[in-house]
């Protein structure tokens, strides 16, 4: 067992850190307040660095890296700005991930390079107003028409939806078949009857776009079916197995950013004639934070390494996502406590880490859903 990263992986970490501290850090609060980041500029820059096609092979314009490198990239982006990391994770794991898992050779050749080369952002639509944790409650419907499919319905809470060029979304094609009657389709920006709708005004992750998408008599060619008819739900679950590793990594990065801010502040701030870091009450908090972050990172890298080894990761990625996201909330809350009143104001970064962290216990399956997934596996029920 070897816990050391390779030189190449360390290099990836250093380059993401340098980019994040140089190009993102100076704007984090501004983007949070504006509820957007310069998506075109960031898309171009991050595509040049390979971060919009991390896991895809070079033949499709990707960086050909593995999940460990992917986790490092998301972690380092989140250490500075979890919101930007969320948009990058949704692009890589969800939209691109679904096409990579289930797309045909023609679809991969045509669409993967658009995503990996940063021609457009990708979005992924599973959630609907009436179908959140229970994705089998999908109401969006696709009916065969004129050799293609007529899609009606909507998705909500979709990351990158306002400006995504490609969106993979699921719809019911055979209602009587339940989960096995759900099919995925690829929607392209500009298709008549398809487009973004209400943008959400959020507690955290504010710079990351979250909006609804609407399908109104949208005629989709049959060539845009992703995967086999009736396999959209199962494929979506596979997509989430990988996606949850990225949310775990995002959680580790978010916690790390808050923790480092707390360490810095505890050494600078003096009360009772001493730096507050000299008080055991503060030291114990920092010790717990450091320990929990390390445990979360190990779970995350373990899931990533298993995924790279081609092993099943449903339980491991749910464990990593569950634990890391809850650590992220706890650590960022303690970071505020260590900052006292200053932690509550926007001159310091910790309030934003705390606001951002909460999404991590909700998106790509809530903590309760992760516990259900884990319990099923430990009880051999699925
Ligand atoms: C910022 C943001 C970005 C997102 N991005 C995307 C995206 O890109 N694509 C996408 O498809 N979705 C996205 N989502 C949606 C997200 O995945 C859902 O919000 C999440 O799965 C929960 O669904 P829900 O909000 O409908 O909550 P609900 O399912 O209504 O859950 C409400 C509460 O009930 C609990 N609960 C539900 N069922 C059970 C059960 N069986 N046992 C115990 N407790 C249960 C939940 O854990 C939760 O606490 C995003 C959400 C947000 C907020």
Q: What is this structure, in a nutshell?
A:
Helices cover 52% and strands 15% of the residues. With 382 residues, it is of the alpha+beta class. Helix 4 (67-80) packs antiparallel against helix 5, helix 7 packs parallel to helix 9 and helix 9 runs antiparallel to helix 10 (350-360).
Please give a structural write-up.
This protein is of the alpha+beta class and 382 residues long. It has three domains: 7-116, Acyl-CoA dehydrogenase/oxidase, N-terminal domain (Butyryl-Coa Dehydrogenase, subunit A, domain 1), CATH 1.10.540.10; 122-229, Butyryl-CoA Dehydrogenase, subunit A, domain 2, CATH 2.40.110; 233-378, Butyryl-CoA Dehydrogenase, subunit A, domain 3. Helices cover 52% and strands 15% of the residues. A four-stranded mixed β-sheet has the order 1-4-5-8, covered by helices on one side. Strands 2-3-7-6 form a four-stranded antiparallel β-sheet, with helices on one face. Strand 9 (270-271) and strand 10 (274-275) form a beta hairpin. Helix 4 (67-80) packs antiparallel against helix 5 (82-102). The longest helix is centred in the middle third of the chain and has 37 residues, at 232-268. It is globular, with a radius of gyration of 21 Å. The chain starts with 6 loop residues before the first helix and ends with a helix. The mean pLDDT is 98. The structure holds flavin-adenine dinucleotide. Flavin-adenine dinucleotide (FAD) binds at residues 90, 94, 124-127, 132-133, 157-159, 202, 205, 210, 359, 362-366, 368-369.
